[in-house]
Structure formats: structure tokens, C-alpha cells
Amino acid sequence: MSDLDKVLAHIDADFDNALDRLFQTVRLKSISTDPAYAAETRACAEWHSKDLETIGFASEVRDTPGHPIVLAKNHEAEGTKVLFYGHYDVQPADPLELWEGDPFEPKIATLPDGSKEIRGRGASDDKGQMMTFIEACRAWKAVTGKLPIPITILLEGEEESGGANLPGFLDAARDELGADVAMICDTNMWDKETPAITTSLRGLCAEEIFIHGADRDLHSGFYGSAAANPNHILARIIADLRDADGRIQIPGFYEGVPEPSPELLAGWEKLDFSEAAFLGEVGLSIPAGEKGRSVLEQTWSRPTCEVNGMHGGYIGDGFKTVIPAVASAKISFRLVFDQDPHKIRAAFREFVKARVPADCRVEFKEFGSGRAVAFEVSAPAFQRTQQGMSDEWGKEAAFVGGGGSIPVTTMIKEKLGMDVVMAGFGLSDDRIHSPNEKYSLTSFHKGIRSWARVLAAL
Ligand code: BES
Ligand code: MN
Fold first, then answer.
1. Rounded to whole angstroms, how far apart are CA atoms 118 and 219?
2. Measured distance CA(271)–CA(188) in Å, rounded
3. What is the dihedral of CA 410, 414, 419, 425, to 10 degrees?
4. pLDDT tens digits, residue range 215-249?
5. Which CATH number fits domain 203-257+303-370: 3.40.50.300, 3.30.70.360, 3.10.310.10, 3.65.10.10?
6. Least crowded by CB within 10 Å, which of 152, 177, 316, 414?
7. CA-CA distance, 159 to 86, in Å (whole number)?
8. Atom of ligand 1 nearest to the CA of 422
9. Could you identify the atom of ligand 1 that is nearest to the CA of residue 160?
10. Mean of the per-residue pLDDT values for the chain?
11. Is the preceding peptide bond at 102 cis, omega within 30 degrees of 0?
12. pTM, 2 dp
């Protein structure tokens, strides 16, 4: 029996214990955005640090001005050095009444078709996902006495709340983080049979705008028409952002946006993606993005502009004839390579200012920003990861694009100069950030087994 076979057998035999460990971390309410949970977020970092010590890592909980970062090293072995990134913080669980059980009391649910899933906040994003990698390390250590390759593990506690302290940490800890390649487990499979490596992610530029009109709310009978109405000004701005064909109208917005290469498009073609099924799953049927672009292009290789929230005037029950003093919107852009978030933010602000009357005023509040990122998959680490995953699932792992954002990926590439292999076992119906978040039991089990193979292949 090869070492790998023994490790895989150990993973199967130890699976209930792996589940128990995942449950332990899910029980810790590491909600990074809510200051009320700061102590429990730290407790979660400490739990992970201690857990990594049991696998032979030299692990520390490093303070930042916000939530701590766990940095753990096990460099006993020779060979390809890996920097693994995960995040131990989670999104708030609300609205609580939509959960079928306590979000922080994980449990296994059995579906009508007999399949099982782990329910709880963070079961998938990112506790379940990151524990697949950690459990694979544990199994290698238990069976062979050491890891097969040198590994550094970095666990962030602020991914879900802006990640303000990560760039500084990466700069300061640069020398400790050096590796041949970085790996992240925070992305999805292509479908529940087909594993996937995500090779590109979109960037983000998010901004809240406040349109201020009169210095108080006004009676719309006394002042209607004569006084500027911030709701209407905001509506005009939002309407102007895209034309009827879905093209974003901010001057210079598409600068640096390339067409996907024929190779990439050919690969996506093979994925046999159904637009009808994709939209049908959420109760829609008509692609709403740029005309003449497939849904895969719209979500993987084209930038977006989305209004995530708007507020203005009276929105309670009943009616109030008022002209509000202020109207606001939260607007975010998903960016692709090689758009510059700072340029986009500046161009957006000019676009808005040009539409605000001289007796009104606009205020801008910056949220996060990050550049898009894309990797060439010819490097050996991508090929070996693909091999390991394909062997486990009995189906070739697909190279796919990603519509979401994982800001650390861009930072690792730009600050540390490394490729990042994003291999994950999430499914599109995991309800991450939503009530009843789940991780399929198969994702967890075969995810651990996949990483065990990938570590061997590396
Ligand atoms: N893990 C997700 C992103 C993700 C999920 C990528 C599935 C690919 C497949 C990540 O934790 C996330 O939610 N990111 C945020 C980042 C933002 C707030 C900066 C996002 O994409 O909205
Ligand atoms: Mn997330």
C-alpha cells in the first residue's frame, strides 16, 4: 500500500472526528463585521492555532489593529513550498427567523434523495472549505509522521468585513510568507460531479453616494417641482449608468478590458453551460447583461455595475408627501483584468458630480476595492492540482472563471509574486452569506481526499 493509499484510508476512518472538529469551529461565532463578536472571533483564531499545533505546525495568533491572523508553519519536509490561505471569519447569520435551526449549532441534514449536508454559518464559507485542506495535512502527519511538503498556513479573520489589515500584514510578514505557490480553498466546483480550479476572479470597486438637496425634508405640495428632489436626481444617475443594451456609460470604463482568448472561450464552450438552468434556478429566464454576450462572459470576463441598495424619503407603511433632504445608494462595480479600481472610482465620481445640480451636493463614501486577477494554468502546480482532483472525482477537473472576488488573491500575486491555485468544493446552492448555509458531506469528505492527493502530487 502506498503512503497516499494509507492516507486516504486514514481520512475515511477518521471522518467522524474531522466532522467533529469542523463542528467545533462552526460553533464559534466569528462574525467579523460586528464588534459585539470580537472576543469570540479571537477565540476562533485561537482554536485554529491550537488545532494546527496538534498537526505539528508552529502556530501563532498575530494581532492586527482589527481581528487577529493565524500564521502557522510546518517546514519539516523538502519540496514545493505551499502558502495556504483561508478565512475563519463568517458573515452575520441574520435574518435568524429564516434558519431552520441555530446557525451556530451545526448539524447534518439528510435530503429526500438520501444525500447529506452540513448546516451552519461557515459550514461552507470558509470553515468547511479551509478545513478540507487542514484535515488533509492532519492525515499525512498521522500516517507518515510529517507533511509531504513544506506548508505555511495563513488564516484571516476579516475577509467578510473588508480585509483592511491584510495588505499591511502581507507587507510586514513578506519574508515569512515566501513559497513556490499559494493555494486557496474558497471557491466552487463546476457542478456536484465535476471539480474545478478557478483561474480568474473579478475585482471590486464599491462606493456609497449621498445626494443632499434641501436642508430639511419638505412638504411636496408647498415645494414640489420648485425644489430639487434627491430621489429623482439619484434615479437619473442610476438610469444613466447603463444604456439599453447593458453597456456601462462611464467614460473610459472599458479601458484595458480585453476579449477572452479563443483558448479560454473554447474551454468555456466545453463546459456545456445552460443559461436557462442557471437563471431558472433563481426564478428568472432573461439574461440582463450586455447584449451579444453569453452569460458566462457576463459573469466571468465582463465588468459590471450593480446597485446593491438605495434609500430615500419615506419608506414606512402608509404614505408621506415629502421631498427628502437626502437620497443614497450603494453601488458596486465588479472589475476585470486590467481595470484600475482607483481610476474607475474617480471616473464614477465625475460621472455623478456632472449630474448633481449646483444647489445640491453629493457625498461619497468609499468601500472596498481590489483589482481582478487571472492566472495562466500552464505552471506545474495547476496541472498537479488538476491531476489530484481528477483522480479523486473520476472526472477531469475544469478550469473555470469566477465572478466573485477574493481580494487576497490579487494581493498574493502582486505583493508576493506567486501564482494562486484556487481549488474549492463549494456548490452554487450552498447558500453562502444566506440563511441555512450548507456544505455537502461529499464536498467535505472528497475535498479532504482531494487535497491529500494534491499534496502528494506536489
Ligand atoms: N468565497 C467568496 C467568494 C466566492 C464564492 C468566489 C464562490 C467564488 C465562488 C468570498 O468569501 C466572498 O464572498 N467575497 C466577497 C468579497 C467582497 C466583499 C470584497 C464578494 O465576492 O462579494
Ligand atoms: Mn464569503
1. 53
2. 14
3. -20
4. 999 999 999 999 999 999 999 999 999 999 999 99
5. 3.30.70.360
6. 316
7. 9
8. 8
9. 18
10. 96
11. no
12. 0.91
Burial class (CB in 10 A: 0-12, 13-18, 19+), 6: middle
Is the pLDDT at 266 greater than 90, yes or no? no
Q: Is 426 touching ligand 1 by the criterion CB < 6 Å?
A: yes
How many angstroms is it from 92 CA to the middle of ligand 2? 11
Q: Does residue 341 line the site of ligand 1, with CB under 6 A? A: no
CA of residue 147 to ligand 2 center, whole Å: 29
Q: Which amino acid residue places its CA nearest to atom 1 of ligand 1? A: 186
Q: List Cβ<8 Å contacts ≥24 apart for 357-361.
A: 357/228, 357/233, 359/228, 360/211, 360/212, 360/213, 360/228, 360/230, 360/233, 361/211, 361/212
CA of 404 to the centre of ligand 1 (A): 5
CB of 187 sitting under 6 A from ligand 1: yes
Fold of 3-201+373-457: Aminopeptidase (3.40.630)
Kindly report, residue by residue over 277-306, the tens digit of the pLDDT.
Answer: 999 988 999 999 999 999 999 999 999 999
Report the separation in Å between the CA atom of 33 and the middle of ligand 1, taken as the mean of its atom positions.
15
* CA-based nearest residue to 267, from 449, 431, 398, 423: 398
Is residue 125 within 6 Å of ligand 1 at its C-beta?
Answer: yes
* pLDDT score, position 268: 87
Tell which one of 160, 367, 405, 431 to mutate to probe ligand 1, the residue whose CB is within 8 A of the most ligand atoms: 405
In the chain, CATH 3.40.630.10 covers 3-201+373-457
User: What are the CA-CA distances from residue 158 to residues 161, 162, 247, 408 (Å)?
Assistant: 5, 6, 33, 11
Of all protein residues, the one whose alpha carbon is nearest to atom 5 of ligand 1 is 187
Q: What is the pLDDT of residues 397-412, one digit of tens each?
A: 999 999 999 999 999 9
Whether the CB of 128 sits within 6 Å of ligand 1? no
For residue range 109-168, list pLDDT tens digits in order. 999 999 999 999 999 999 999 999 999 999 999 999 999 999 999 999 999 998 889 999
- Interval 344-373: pLDDT, tens: 999 999 999 999 999 999 999 998 788 999
**Segments of the chain assigned to CATH 3.30.70.360:** 203-257+303-370
